[in-house]
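Write out the bound-state structure for cobalt (II) ion.
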Amino acid sequence: MEKEKKVLFTETVLRDAHQSLMATRMSTDDMLPIVEKMDEAGYYALECWGGATYDAAIRFLHEDPWERLRQIRKRAPHAKLQMLLRGQNLIGYRHYADDIVDRFVGKAVENGIDIFRIFDALNDTRNLKASLEAVKKYGAHAQLTICYTISDVHTIPFYTDLAKELTEMGADSICIKDMAGILTPKVAKELIPAIKAVIDVPLNIHTHATSGVSQMTYMAAIEAGADIIDCAISPFAEGTSQPPTESMALVLEELGYSTGLNIAKLEEIADYFKPIRDKYIASGVLDPKMLSVDPKALIYQVPGGMLSNLNSQLKQAKASDKYEAVLREVPRVRADLGFPPLVTPMSQMVGTQAVFNVLTGERYKMVPNEVKDYLHGKYGKPPVPVNDNFRRSIIGNDAVITDRPADHLEPEFARLKAELGDLARTDEDVLTYALFPQVGKAYLQEVYYPTIPEEQAEIKAPSQGETAESVIRIQARYRS
Amino acid sequence: MEKEKKVLFTETVLRDAHQSLMATRMSTDDMLPIVEKMDEAGYYALECWGGATYDAAIRFLHEDPWERLRQIRKRAPHAKLQMLLRGQNLIGYRHYADDIVDRFVGKAVENGIDIFRIFDALNDTRNLKASLEAVKKYGAHAQLTICYTISDVHTIPFYTDLAKELTEMGADSICIKDMAGILTPKVAKELIPAIKAVIDVPLNIHTHATSGVSQMTYMAAIEAGADIIDCAISPFAEGTSQPPTESMALVLEELGYSTGLNIAKLEEIADYFKPIRDKYIASGVLDPKMLSVDPKALIYQVPGGMLSNLNSQLKQAKASDKYEAVLREVPRVRADLGFPPLVTPMSQMVGTQAVFNVLTGERYKMVPNEVKDYLHGKYGKPPVPVNDNFRRSIIGNDAVITDRPADHLEPEFARLKAELGDLARTDEDVLTYALFPQVGKAYLQEVYYPTIPEEQAEIKAPSQGETAESVIRIQARYRS
Ligand SMILES: [Co+2]
Ligand SMILES: [Co+2]
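---
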């Protein structure tokens, strides 16, 4: 009877696993030799693009992200290729105009993407609209995403309402994205049946192993009706990455679930990636601390990455003794800002504001520009409205955007193409420039004028995950 | 209602966690400053002695294991201190006479041990008898152990019969010891209620996170009625160690279980051990590979440590291409030998015999002396009797011990004390010499005659876990 129950697996080793463990530094050369095997292993999907992969490819690896995608597609004719898209932010760090969104999605489909996992940091569904429309227009699969967070307002009814809205918008599947690894078995047991009851499309659960509960959370989620889980092949599993593909598959098969996975092929894939993992450990790219467990995220209900950012900001300010005070300030700032999920860019804004509030000794004496933009409505709608008096105390009587933020953006593709001049040889080039004006332009110059001296390329220090650029911006402003 | 359900935690960071992750190399100095905090955290027990700790202390750390125990006891007046005892092997590598067993247990109680987890590699209960009697005599808690393994004969009824026998012998609690990390949720769901039904003492589950299923196995075990689980504080958790204490406690408390643990204190303990873990990683003592997942044990139903031993034996013999052939030979050898559990020393015997059988091209052309001793009955009774013809083909018509092997051993304490001469200043010294004749004597010479040149101390290369001495012996014999 139970044998009829299916669980599908999305493999993250080509995207989230190395993004989470080693700041997205896996090279295309390390991926391609095994892609054919991955194509045959029985996965539901291979997550292989989006998130920070594009940024890391042009910024650190000096690789063409589009060429990586085409090469993967060529070797995986059967598997569904999946990418992570930050809604109106695409894979960059600001809201882009709708024409850029349309072009980007079109090109991603053309180069090989089948499934788009689309999320907005505020769960503001208006920020998903343009990418959803584009995905539909180009005939791909739109997986709309619930960013999971914990707060007074993020209740089961809040999430079921959101899930219902995403289905009504036309989601082909729904993802619960637990970017911080704080979804627990208890909550999964309650949340998943509630969501399944209001949707008629597959439900995908995404978590991270960081806090040492993810295997249990997946098991509870599956028992509660989840259809798809995200796992990483064992050499790149656990720690800040996902639970191991083979282990989850073996356990579930033994319990009578059908996964469609071929264990022998998974083992070959693991054997392939093991020396690659060891190579990145030996070269220092993969810090072994990333492989270990840190339950602090679970204790403070704050993502682990945010905790370590706060810690290092306070160290830089020689105020490490204020750590507990800042941790107590975080939920207060979050409440003031309408309980945003603690994901990029909100985790940086909330964290930096909490640090400011504690270090200056006066709440909101100093406010980063990003927080002001947020209060102007430029990022979208907070989960609950911000108190009017609070807002006025920060941005006075400035006008506030209450409709879709991107409605205020003029088309920009043609302008950017013109700006880029003879570096704009393909639409992909223009997108690279649109998404990463400085780094993208430097990259294109490297490609088309390889003799140009190195120092023109803007090289930045490695930093963790998707948060790179915005953390740097906020910290730069703090120092200035 | 569920709130009444209790789960108790045994903390392994002072014994199994560092034994599994870094070959038992944690120094007493790294333990003592946090023991008072551990005493207050609400653990059921602190596993802190036995296993390979004694050997590693005198062999590699040049530390007095008894002094470590006394110092821990002094700082933990409330907590129960637990040790791992290999039945008639105590913490050494052969069967010792009953008088040694009695003295050792007596001294362990005197120096601070409350709970003895006693196991025999063959699950031959006669090998537990002398230590059980001694533990009772000195008024401590005897936790008798089922070594969990997978084979045709290790069925649920096999284990329930064993559990019943252990209870009848007088076990104060029972442990299911899954040394290889191959106990799955499915089996836990069946095995644990079956065992609980025939015992009236608490049931403790011990597993390792190696194959990436342990969180799920613990959860299934607890739902099925397990009373105590073994966990490691997060910096020394996962990988080849146990699941993280804080994570399991948080998840279980949220599900309505009462753990008795103080999360704030656990966090302080984790904060203490994090830089210690990082120090051992930086110095190379903790190989980061030990922190990662390897589901191969689950696939081959063979402990991970045995797989890597086989791999390195074959590499040394320049026969890496025979790996698959050896893996196929392992279950055949195991069947020939009556399906022994694959734990020290049986895992080494079975593995080496399988290598011999494949490399010589003729099964049992070459047989290690340990296997011959085993067939003579010197290790005890196999789970099922060895075929007579098979035995005769190896050891001819030699007499076979069928009663308790230790009944054939003369008392040895007095003799060894005399042998040791003026190095025998305490009973503990005699035990050190009894357990580790060469290394122990060298250690005592260092202690009492510190001017004696270094080269008299027998220094061996680090090797993994409990298996150190016997693997080296078997490999040495193979080479000679
Ligand atoms: Co993720
Ligand atoms: Co163990």
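---
The first helix of chain A runs from residue 16 to 22.
Chain A has two domains: 2-288, 296-407.
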